[in-house]
Amino acid sequence: MNSIKIMVAQVLLAGLYGGCVNPTQQIQPITTVSATAEVPCPTPKLVYDYAKEIGVIFPEVIVAQSILESGEKYSSGLACKGNNLFGMRPANQRVNCQIQDTSYAGYAMYEDWRESVECILHWQRHKNLSKHKSRTDYVMIGLSSYAEDTTYRFRVLSKASDIHKKFWDGK
Hints:
By secondary structure, the protein is an all-alpha fold. The chain has a single domain (2-167), classed as Orthogonal Bundle (Lysozyme). It contains 7 helices and 2 strands. A two-stranded antiparallel sheet has the order 1-2. The radius of gyration is 15 Å and the shape is globular. The N and C termini lie far apart (35 Å).
């Protein structure tokens, strides 16, 4: 079931999804592990590495978001009960990668935390956020409608800078 959902998402992202993906943008397939594999508990480093592996732009930013949304040890109710590290709502205009017809207090639920990272990738592609070439532009412009808190983008940018220094591997 999980692999079928991923294949459908990849087909949709390949350009058949109402033009929400830039047709000139090269689509990297999302590589996932089987639903039966043991999934380690998320850590900032695991989230960073997985985000980088699947092609998320500015992975340090999404790690910063996940920490701000779920706590340093990913202990929020939404992270624990719904595997949702980012406070994502169910999708209605982008690829829906959540568990079908389920939610926790109105937020998307996922089979494991990696699916929430994959959902961020779909969101980035849907919003064409790869056009932002700097972390600052990505956060200040790309995340302008992401959260209601007016200080959110500044907090993300500060934390992302720290994460980048901690995890950046020079590539």
